[in-house]
């Protein structure tokens, strides 16, 4: 019977410290990925609700010249897009409600004109404040053949607005030129942050079926170490059209890998990524 080897105390403590540090880092990155996925999903839910609702509403509401705007919000398990009239006395002129499947065939359209509920008024005022801030502060650029999508989100006393740039033409996906605005409960702008410093595009042919492919862009230090919540929302909206099976965002110290098949996010250090996936090192778009 072989005697058990003795591990010196300092060596054992060093090994424990390395293991504890690696475990803590993994836990931290998991927490970051969970938070980013949750926020990106919230943005996506608002955007996909608006996507489907505008098509359904315009198809049934004949006085399109009376539509002054819209906003989407969640109420329990329902996702609602509310449309308001033009004029100095804004009222609800109709709503489209979807369930968590976001299947437009299951949507309910209500064309009854009425006053806003309390939650609708909150979203309307926040959306209005965001538009006013964008016009006054010149916070984001407007590129040709694109539109700015305003996504208000309210969670208790927290009020924020994401501004995304969307394409006006088919076959184009846009990352970047996005913004996060924070407001107080009086809908006064507290802070604004550019999430990417520029605009990046990816083209695809919506009529052509290819084998699944991978997408990638990289982040400058100003865009942060991880994929952004707006990146995730954009992927959820467009990944099935582009037929991506995965998408990577490469930053200075970390790599974020989004699985487009099961909608999961994995974040790894840049050092570990380059050791384990050297074949993935290629030229990226920088954002």
Could you explain the architecture of this structure?
There is one protein chain. This protein has helices spanning 9-60, 118-137, 229-242, 270-276, and strands at 67-75, 78-85, 92-98, 108-110, 146-155, 158-167, 172-176, 179-183, 189-194, 199-203, 213-218, 244-250, 254-259, 264-269. It is of the alpha+beta class and 287 residues long. The protein has one domain (17-280). The strands form four sheets. A four-stranded antiparallel sheet has the order 1-2-3-4, sandwiched between helices. A four-stranded antiparallel sheet has the order 5-6-8-9, with helices on both faces. Strands 11-12-13-14 form a four-stranded mixed sheet. α1 (9-60) packs across α3 (229-242).
Rg, Å, rounded: 23 Å
Counting DSSP E segments of at least 2 residues, the number of strands comes to 14
Order the strands across the largest sheet as they lie in space: 1-2-3-4
**Low-pLDDT segments:** 1-22
Question: Main β-sheet, in a few words?
Answer: 4 strands, antiparallel
Order of helices and strands: HEEEEHEEEEEEEHEEEH
What form results from the Cα inertia axes? globular
């Amino acid at each position: 019977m072989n005697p058990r080897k003795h591990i010196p105390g300092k060596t054992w403590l060093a090994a424990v410290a390395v293991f504890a540090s690696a475990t803590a880092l993994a836990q931290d990155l998991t927490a970051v990925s969970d938070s980013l996925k949750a926020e990106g999903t919230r943005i996506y839910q608002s955007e996909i609700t608006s996507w489907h609702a505008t098509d359904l509403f315009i198809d049934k509401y004949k006085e399109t010249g009376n539509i002054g705007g819209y906003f989407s919000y969640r109420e329990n398990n329902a996702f609602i897009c509310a449309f308001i009239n033009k004029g100095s006395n804004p009222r609800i002129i109709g709503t489209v409600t979807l369930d968590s499947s976001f299947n437009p065939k299951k949507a309910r359209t209500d064309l009854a004109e009425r006053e806003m509920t309390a939650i609708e008024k909150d979203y309307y005022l926040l959306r209005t404040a965001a538009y006013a801030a964008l016009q006054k502060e010149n916070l984001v650029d407007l590129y040709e053949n694109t539109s700015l999508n305003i996504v208000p989100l309210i969670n208790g006393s927290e009020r924020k607005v994401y501004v995304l740039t969307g394409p006006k033409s088919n076959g184009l996906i846009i990352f970047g030129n996005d913004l996060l605005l924070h407001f107080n409960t009086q809908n006064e702008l507290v802070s604004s942050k550019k999430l990417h410093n520029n605009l990046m595009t990816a083209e695809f042919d919506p009529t052509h079926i290819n084998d699944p492919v991978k997408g990638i862009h990289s982040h400058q230090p100003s865009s942060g170490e991880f994929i952004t919540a707006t990146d995730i929302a954009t992927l959820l909206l467009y990944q099935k059209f582009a037929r991506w099976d995965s998408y990577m965002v490469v930053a200075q110290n970390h790599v974020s890998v989004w699985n487009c098949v099961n909608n999961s996010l994995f974040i790894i250090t840049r050092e570990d990524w380059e050791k384990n996936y050297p074949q993935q090192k290629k030229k990226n778009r920088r954002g």
